[in-house]
Amino acid sequence: VQLQASGGGLVQAGGSLRLSCAASGGTFSNYALAWFRQAPGKEREVVAALRWSGARYAYADSVKGRFTISRDRAKNTMYLQMNNLNPEDTSVYYCAARPSWTTNWYSTSEYVYWGQGTQVTVSS
User: Fold this and answer.
1) Any bridge partners for residue 32, and if so which?
2) Sign of torsion over alpha carbons 19, 64, 101, 41
3) How far is the C-alpha of 87 from the C-alpha of 64, rounded, in Å?
4) Running DSSP on this structure, what letter comes out for residue 29?
5) Backbone CA torsion sign across 93, 98, 104, 107
6) Cα separation of 114 and 124, whole Å?
7) In terms of Cα–Cα distance, which of 57, 65, 71 is closest to 106?
8) Max Cα separation, the chain?
9) pLDDT in tens, the chain (124 residues)
10) 86 near 98, Cβ under 8 Å?
């Protein structure tokens, strides 16, 4: 399984960005996919996760109401729509996957496959 993240960039506070994660090399019907982020000097933390087959979406409290995770099955692509960004959202964002949904969806150790990061910088 390969994951390719893209869509990062520089945006002003209050602005929006949409990240994409293109998935390939597997059958993702039961997979759980997630977005994580890591700021300099900080641990990697979960942002949001979903079950590829649907009906399961989860968000970190810090992004609820501002970020939306989604996927396009036809394109094998996961998205993260980020609105009302603030400087605290500045991080490298990573997409990750595992073969099934887990109640520990927030834990980095649960995910087997990782994409390269994409930098998101929010200026004040």
Assistant:
1) 51, 98
2) positive
3) 16
4) T
5) negative
6) 30
7) 57
8) 41
9) 999 999 999 999 999 999 999 999 988 889 999 999 999 999 999 999 999 998 899 999 999 999 999 999 999 999 999 999 999 999 999 999 999 999 999 999 999 999 999 999 999 9
10) no
